[in-house]
Write a structure and sequence with these properties.
mainly alpha; two-stranded antiparallel ribbon
Length: about 260
């Protein structure tokens, strides 16, 4: 883990000052390099939410989640911590936006069975014209390819789609995803998740142990079972050798 996700306020103050002043072009320049990673993260998190029953395939797309994240980022741009880089802030915000949508969907299902499409439409109507313009500006076809970087870690990105990772609590899994998939430092995880560093560390350690243990158990179950040769007693000792019958034995046998 590195501290690449956090930076000094000075390194971000110049460009972000324009964003805070309402410069939409500055905001676009700040977020554009991170769009491929945001889209990949959105697709992964939607797979998870569908697998655990929080959402249906038709409820929300990765493009819609990224678009909502960008619109929310513009609206909440003044809330970005000075010591947190745009990339880490946007990824953390995407988790928060998705959780907010899932909670709205749960409430809607309990109250009147209202679909997520209606919930998203109501939220979109609440955005002002500038927010909607930012949403329309996001074009997934313009995204550059983004290759996953696999960190040197006991848990790999492939493990995040395993049943053991899905069985983690939401916070445990989020912390693990931020570290394993996005290579966040502990400092960045604690800032993004609004947790004390010691609590973030406990979440990570517990999640890592459970996922790694589940993977090892699954690998052990797949190993072929070999049959040990029967012990044969020879002159008072026991040693292992395969049983054999000589051709003469076969001829002398009376079946």
């Amino acid at each position: 883990m590195t501290d690449a996700d956090t930076g000094s306020g000075a390194s971000l103050a110049g460009p972000w000052r324009g964003v805070l002043a309402g410069d939409k072009d500055a905001y676009r320049r700040a977020v554009e390099p991170h769009l491929p990673e945001l889209l990949a993260a959105a697709a992964r998190e939607l797979r998870y939410r569908r697998a655990v029953g929080d959402l249906r395939p038709q409820d929300l797309t990765a493009d819609e989640l990224v678009g909502e994240t960008l619109a929310r980022g513009w609206r909440d741009r003044a809330r970005k911590p000075a010591g947190l880089e745009v990339r880490a802030w946007l990824l953390g915000l995407e988790f928060k936006v998705l959780e907010s949508i899932v909670r709205s969907e749960r409430r809607a299902r309990k109250l009147a069975g209202v679909s997520l499409e209606a919930s998203v439409e109501e939220e979109a109507q609440a955005l002002d014209a500038s927010d909607e313009a930012l949403w329309e500006w996001y074009q997934p076809d313009d995204l550059l390819r983004w290759e996953d970087t696999i960190p040197a870690h006991d848990v790999t990105p492939a493990d995040l789609d395993a049943a053991d990772a899905y069985a983690l609590s939401r916070q445990e899994r989020e912390a693990l995803v931020l570290v394993v998939e996005h290579q966040f430092s502990l400092k960045a995880v604690s800032m993004v998740m609004n947790l004390p560093p010691d609590q973030a560390l406990r979440l990570l350690q517990g999640a890592e142990r459970r996922v790694a243990a589940g993977r090892l158990a699954a690998e052990g179950a797949k190993r072929p079972v070999t049959m040990e040769p029967r012990p044969v007693r020879v002159k008072g000792s026991t040693r292992h050798r395969p049983r054999s019958i000589s051709p003469s034995d076969c001829l002398s046998r009376k079946d």
